[in-house]
Amino acid sequence: MALNLCFILTRSPDEGDTDSLILNTAFQGLGKGDQVTIFLLGDSVWLANKNKSKLEGFIKKGGKVAASGEHLQAHGLSRDDILPAVGIAAD
């Protein structure tokens, strides 16, 4: 039975390995046929930066990513700065 999984990240990619742990778990879910979404809040919006994103492979495998528009703006990131496939919530 396929599941719908959603992970919410809040920490900066520079603060430990939480993002790597979540990505590994998310990839496992995709491999099992689950629908997986990662939602970025707070400092984690830096993961969507198209110049150094760890999320490209996840998106190519069918994963979904959304980021808080308010938090992107607070961190000085615009639509042009992030991966095109990342959805923006509450812009």
Distance between the termini: 34 Å
Order of helices and strands: EHEHEHE
Number of strands: 4
| Total of DSSP H or I helical runs spanning 4+ residues | 3
Core attributes:
91 residues, alpha/beta, 4 strands, globular
Descriptive overview:
The protein is an alpha/beta fold. Helices cover 27% and strands 22% of the residues. It has three helices and four strands; from the N terminus they run βαβαβαβ. The chain has a four-stranded parallel beta sheet with strand order 1-2-3-4. α1 links the parallel β1 (4-9) and β2. The longest helix is centred in the first third of the chain and has 14 residues, at 18-31. The radius of gyration is 12 Å and the shape is globular.
Summed up, what is this model?
The protein is 27% helix and 22% strand.
Element layout with pairings:
Blueprint: E1 4-9, H1 18-31, E2 35-40, H2 56-60, E3 64-68, H3 69-74, E4 87-89
Parallel strand pairs: 1-2, 2-3, 3-4
